[in-house]
Design goal:
about 150 residues, homodimer, disordered N terminus, DNA-binding, 6 helices, mainly alpha, two-stranded antiparallel ribbon, 2 strands
Chain lengths: ~150, ~150
DNA sequence: TTGAAGTCAATGCAGTTGCATGTAAATCAT
DNA sequence: ATGATTTACATGCAACTGCATTGACTTCAA
């Protein structure tokens, strides 16, 4: 999938953007995870699942989460196991495809999502909203979304 | 450090930028790590250390890495342990501060960095360089760098 | 149909990260 | 100079991730 990797040949602008990107991400994630931990809440990965399940009324499958969250299959599998053990989700047999199971939020899961959002949102605001105008945020979205568009062959 | 987290109140633009940011990062990191693994090389975190040590001729301390790489102290500590075991770095007593040790690249460490860059650079180019013009890359850098500036109190 | 190929999910094992805490040395306040 | 605080680093333990493989089921082709 990757080209032949011989001459590095990166423009300084690209390299700097890459560095800025990595640093910004680490900084932001540290802030988010710290807030969740400080409040005694589980990590962001759990929240992501809770939110996806909440949004999709229809019972999602693990493979749907995998694609939406860009998380590896085995990590989804085990994350769901832990969340089921914690009473946040439950899984029901899928009549249409007996390989997989449908995922559902429990009341406790739904409640947790609702508790975590008021922790999460202010961090987003602090980290991103406070630093950028809405216009800049839109610019950022546009630039970032260019990064994973399908390229023409 | 965080405000009082009561009303979420995020603009749609900010929320979308946040999502785009997280997705772009997962996408990019998956590509980078996949390339390193495919070549039989260690993960990006190892490369980061190798590069920092190469750039800083003077023996860095673990705490310097912690700050430059935004990695937690205990992770730096254990990453260095693993890299030392792998023969990539060595640590010498610091005459000026006997709590810590100075870090140095071994020949093997330096060689590994030089081998990994030709894997890494093309991924950066693919993920970021191919999608953005230099001008856009500079815009992105500016926007991202706003995210972790010290804010005026 | 039916057997090959593909898809959905789980798991053993090793590597890595997070949390809490510990130890030693430096620094600071008095 | 000396006890309290801070700084640098390490580590036990639990949680999480990555890799490779497996099992179960579905789909596709002939």
């Amino acid at each position: 999938m990757t080209s032949k990797e011989s001459p590095p040949k990166l423009s300084a602008a690209v390299e700097e953007a890459w560095i800025a990107f990595l640093r910004a991400h680490r900084h932001n994630m540290a802030a988010v995870e710290a807030e969740f931990r400080a409040g005694g809440y589980p990590p962001l990965s759990w929240y992501d699942v809770l939110l996806e399940l909440k949004r999709a009324q229809t019972g999602l499958r693990a493979v749907d989460l995998e694609r939406r969250l860009l998380v590896a299959q085995y990590n989804v599998s085990r994350l769901l196991l832990r969340m089921e053990r914690a009473g946040l989700i439950h899984r029901t047999a899928d009549p249409a495809d007996r390989r997989g199971r449908r995922l559902h939020l429990t009341d406790r899961g739904r409640q947790l999502q609702e508790e975590m959002w008021p922790i999460y949102a202010p961090v987003i605001q602090e980290q991103l909203g406070a630093a950028l105008s809405d216009d800049e945020a839109r610019q950022l979205t546009l630039l970032l979304n260019k990064l994973h568009q399908e390229k023409p062959c």
